[in-house]
Design goal:
single chain, 1043 residues, alpha+beta, Alpha-Beta Plaits, PH-domain like, 7-stranded mixed β-sheet, 32 helices, extended, calmodulin binding, microfilament motor activity
Length: 1043
């Protein structure tokens, strides 16, 4: 693997020195803090969740990693996805990508990134795009029904998912198959504090319209439903309403019909309403305590939704029928038993609905049986879990992770062994922890924990969790990986953390203590036959199909398989599937418990590194040779280290590598030469090569600099010498040319006089005196006619912005050509002006005037160019009260806007309405709509304005004016360019004089008898919509800051 010069830390932990838990965590932390979230262990990708969006994804990066091999760029999930896809496409090898990690580590996002990369790099076409869209749209549907907010993660997958994406021989997707594992259906009826039920319930209540909610007999408020934790009904960053619309759209894309979508939502509503069925104590006629329905409204609504009579559903919830081959016994349920039956029904309905959705998606994306296909599997499954209270769910999850670890070790060693065999290198047996003893402890058919649990569930008589634990203690008392309170007491050990109802297994990732409470119930996963039969009787096609065992024609007295047995069989099928494919691993790590970006908890990451077996993975990778590379790339990288291989090597790559190693005197036991690769045993050897390369590069850089400097000096000297010779030769040549031109001119003059004398003599003798002039005129008229006709055929378009013009064919026509060009342009301008309305002409004149006044002088002028001059910014036409301020003056108001007047005394500003007419400038109190000052345009002597982007300007009045005693006006306008342009034109029209407009940052204003120097400065962050602040500087100074 090339070591990138700009890498952060060690990009491949196989090369980490020294290797240990502390150095591994430190390397991950250094890379995480620099936002390098991906690290390799050989071809395994470690992904640390950044909890923020990073600019390392998208089409640009997909194209980048598509064109390079695994180790040529920085570690990235795209690199692993590319290797898997290219191996599947080019080498005909089925692939699987195993994504593991605990909740909140980013497994779901990692699987999305893998699928989006594969979708981006595979083929195009209408059918291919349709398949890709269906595969991608399956994610939001499964997330809605299978994900939930937990304490650790706002979008935690509460099920395991394995997707096989199937491709044709060209690498284009044909479809896929999804397999789900162990949905956490207990969440349907109960959630921990600050956790939510599955997303779909909240999305339905938030996103469904009022008509749909009414049809489903639901209310929008989540606090009305017992199965929903109302304390966490809303989550920051999650928009349930928009997600509901996205789920509906995704189901349509996948191929669900409108009727199927409606039925899925009806079954979801049934689960919600089951939680609101309240049960109470009742006494039967024989005074036996039983259960009853507290309020029949909920049962009635459920019956109406699914087409089932309320009496049948109520009977199924309150009683249980026990049927044998000879008799049938109906017993009433106590309130606790009825509550258990109600919750079991809700869990089973939701679990079976989820399985049906997966089945329905598979039906849409499945591939025809006759098509030849290649497969890429993506496994997104729970990571190893060690909680404070570990129950049956954690037991089967950790069992699955034990099997995955077994696959990882065996496949890794197998891959190593095959590569060594392929390269002709002797294979040395690698010592590692074989966790098959733990797997056998759990899954052995006769003596495994799962087998004992099934046996206890099926055993007649009194069965409890305690009897199950007693059987385990008896059977595994001598097992080195099993502990309990009984086995510890037998060995005279004291452990206060071990409860009486607990047992402990020493997993590969550490010891986990399991509480056996509810193991029997969760493994049995019983649903009373009365409830199954009631659901089958419903006139709801989807709900009826979920309970085929309720059909009286298919009644079976055979006990259904337990949850543990089903999961064990699923894991066995999964393992068989994984062994048949080439594995690729993504290990996801959660950096902190608070989902905060930039925080790295070493203790938390250390536990996850232990669960994931990262250190053991590295040791297995380093057990043989830590580093290997093809001879070609190795020679290309290190050939500057050998005298014979640098700068050119014309023989084979392997011979070149052997030359380099021989000249560096590397110990032979540190190396092995394969058929196509060189293998290096110790990372220190690789680091030695890198250090030698770095020093050699410094030497070569110095050599290049030295050579370049010498070349530059020689080139400069040669250029100076050439220039001196050129100047000297040019000077001498010029002197000779001048002398030659004088001699030649004299000779030509003499020749001309002689030829002229002879010509005149012959002309007088043979020709008329005017023949030459006539001939010359004829020639000139001919070329003139040709010029004008050619100009006629190549005239430019009449567009005023088209400045093209054909050049003159002869120099004598240059002046005429330019004049014709000018006349044509004037004609086009006149034609353009004739098309303009009077209003457009007026606007054009104003814009031209503004350009003459402010272009290149005022910073805010460019922003005013594309903006139309409106004149009225206060709604003057619709405000009769403001129109009265004109008084008796005739003519329109040229400009009406709100300005700020700077107070003469303290520099504070007050709002004024400014009206500009053809003869006056009127300043009005903005609140009282009363004229404060009326200034005649003949009284305005000058205007001062700054060159910055502010709107400050000063009206300098003549001393003889009626307002002259009060002094000048210092104003702020948001449309200063438009205002001063209109004022300039108004003064010109009224007084036939040009109003002086001075652009400066320093000017003086007269306030009554005082002269105040105004200084305008640019403050920090100036630009855009500038703000002004005024500060008095003594009695004769005012500083204005533009912010």
């Amino acid at each position: 693997m090339p070591l990138l010069e700009d890498s952060v830390g060690v990009e491949d932990l196989v090369l980490l020195e020294p290797l240990g838990q502390e150095s591994l965590l430190k390397n991950l932390q250094i890379r995480f803090e620099k936002k390098e979230i991906y690290t390799y262990i050989g071809n395994v990708v470690i992904s640390v969740n950044p909890y923020q969006q990073l600019p390392i994804y998208g089409p640009e990066f997909i194209a980048k990693y598509r064109d390079y091999t695994f180790y040529e760029l920085k570690p990235h999930i795209y690199a692993l996805a590319n290797v898997a896809y290219q191996s599947l496409k080019d080498q005909e090898r089925d692939q699987c990508i195993l994504i593991t990690g605990e909740s909140g580590a980013g497994k779901t996002e990692a699987s999305k990134l893998v699928m989006s990369y594969v979708a981006a790099v595979c083929g195009k076409g209408e059918q291919v795009n349709s398949v890709k869209e269906q595969l991608l749209q399956s994610n939001p549907v499964l997330e809605a029904f299978g994900n939930a907010k937990t304490i650790r993660n706002n979008n935690s997958s509460r099920f395991g998912k394995y997707m096989d994406i199937e491709f044709d021989f060209k690498g284009c997707p044909l479809g896929g198959v999804i397999t789900n594992y162990l949905l956490e259906k207990s969440r349907v009826v109960k959630q921990l504090k600050r956790e939510r039920n599955f997303h779909i319930f909240y999305q339905l209540l938030a996103g469904a319209d009022a008509q749909l909610l009414k049809a489903l007999k639901l209310e929008r408020e989540t606090s009305l439903y017992a199965y929903l934790n109302w304390e966490a009904s809303r989550v920051d960053g999650i928009d349930d309403a928009s997600n509901f619309r996205a789920v509906q759209s995704a189901m349509t894309v996948i191929g669900f019909s409108d009727e199927e979508i409606r039925q899925v939502l009806e079954v979801t509503a049934v689960v919600l309403k089951l939680g609101n069925v309240e049960l109470s104590d009742e006494f039967q006629a024989d005074r036996i305590l039983a259960s009853g329905i507290h309020d029949g409204q909920g049962v009635q609504e459920i019956g109406e939704l699914v087409g089932l009579s309320a009496e049948e559903l109520e009977s199924a919830l309150r009683s249980r029928t026990v049927e044998t081959t000879k008799e049938k016994v109906v017993t009433a349920l106590t309130i606790i038993q009825a509550q258990y039956a109600r919750d079991a029904l809700a869990k089973n309905i939701y679990s079976r609905l989820f399985n049906w959705i997966v089945y329905r998606i598979n039906e849409s994306i499945k591939v025809g049986a006759g098509e030849k296909k290649k497969v890429m599997g993506v496994l997104d499954i729970y990571g190893f879990e060690i909680l404070q209270d570990n129950s049956f769910e954690q037991f089967v999850i950790n069992y699955c992770n034990e099997k995955l670890q077994q696959v990882f070790i065996e496949m890794t060693l197998k891959e190593e062994q095959e590569e060594y065999k392929r390269e002709g290198i002797p294979w040395t047996k690698v010592e590692y922890f074989d966790n098959s003893i733990i797997c056998n402890l759990i899954e052995h058919n006769q003596r495994g924990i799962l087998a004992m649990l099934d046996e206890e569930c099926l055993r007649p008589g009194v069965v409890s969790d305690s009897t199950f634990l007693a059987k385990l203690n008896q059977l595994f008392s001598q097992h080195e990986h099993y502990e309990s309170k009984v086995t510890q007491n037998a060995q005279h050990q004291y452990d206060h953390t071990m409860g009486l109802s607990c047992f402990r297994i020493c997993h590969y990732a550490g010891k986990v203590t399991y509480n056996v409470t509810s193991f029997i119930d969760k493994n049995n996963d019983l649903l009373y036959r009365d409830l199954s039969q009631a659901m089958w009787k419903a006139q709801h096609p989807l709900l009826q199909s979920l309970f085929p065992e309720g059909d009286p024609k298919q009644v079976s007295l055979k006990r259904p398989p337990t949850a543990g047995a089903q999961f064990k069989n699923s894991v066995a099928i999964l393992m068989k599937n994984l062994y048949s494919k080439n594995p690729n691993y993504i290990r996801c790590i959660k950096p902190n418990e608070h989902q905060q970006h930039g925080q790295f908890s070493s203790e938390l990451v250390a536990n996850q590194a232990l669960y994931l077996g990262l250190l053991e993975n590295v040791r297995v990778r380093r057990a043989g040779y830590a580093y290997r590379q093809g001879y070609g790339p190795f020679l290309e990288r290190y050939r500057m280290l050998g005298r014979s291989t640098w700068p050119h090597w014309k023989e084979g790559a392997r011979e070149g590598v052997e030359k380099i190693i021989g000249e560096l005197s590397v110990a032979s036991e540190e190396l092995a030469f394969g058929k196509t690769k060189i293998f290096i045993r110790n990372p220190k050897t690789l680091f030695y090569l890198e250090e030698q390369r770095r020093l050699r590069l410094q030497q070569l850089a110095t050599l290049i600099q030295k050579t370049y400097r010498g070349w530059r000096c020689r080139t400069s000297y040669q250029l100076m010498r050439k220039s001196q010779i050129l100047i000297s030769s040019w000077f001498r040549g010029n002197m000779q040319k001048k002398r030659y031109r004088k001699i030649r001119a004299s000779a030509l003059l003499i020749q001309a006089f002689v030829r002229g004398w002879k010509a005149r003599k012959n002309y007088r003798k043979y020709f008329r005196s005017g023949a030459a002039r006539t001939l010359a005129d004829f020639i000139y008229r001919s070329i003139t006619q040709k010029f004008l006709l050619g100009l006629k055929n190549s005239l430019p378009s009449i567009t005023i912005l088209d400045n093209k013009w054909p050049p003159a064919p002869y120099k004598c026509f240059n002046t005429a050509n330019q004049e014709l060009r000018r006349l044509c342009h004037q004609w086009k301008c006149k034609k353009f002006r004739d098309q303009l309305s009077p209003e457009q002409v007026q606007v054009l004149k104003e814009k031209l005037c503004a350009s003459e006044l402010f272009k290149g002088k005022k910073a805010s002028y460019p922003q005013s160019v594309p903006v139309q001059f409106r004149g009225d910014y206060i709604g003057l036409q619709g405000n009769p009260k403001l129109q009265k301020l004109k008084g008796g003056e005739k003519g329109p108001v040229l400009m009406a806007e709100t300005v700020k007047k700077i107070n003469r005394g303290n520099g504070k500003t007050s709002s004024r309405i400014l009206l500009l007419t053809k003869e006056h400038v009127i300043l009005t109190d903005a609140k009282k709509s009363r004229a404060k000052s009326v200034i005649g345009l003949d009284s305005v002597a000058e205007v001062s304005v700054t060159s910055l982007s502010d709107g400050l300007f000063s009206l300098h009045l003549t001393e003889m004016s009626s307002m002259g005693s009060k002094g000048d006006f210092l104003l702020i306008s948001d449309h200063v360019v438009e205002l001063l342009t209109k004022m300039y034109r108004a003064v010109l029209d009224a007084t036939q004089r040009e109003l002086p407009v001075t652009v400066t940052e320093k000017f003086s204003v007269k306030f009554k008898e005082n002269i105040v120097a105004v200084k305008v400065i640019q403050g920090p962050g100036g630009g855009g919509n500038s703000q002004l602040s005024c500060k008095k500087k003594g009695s004769h100074g005012l500083e204005v800051t533009v912010k």
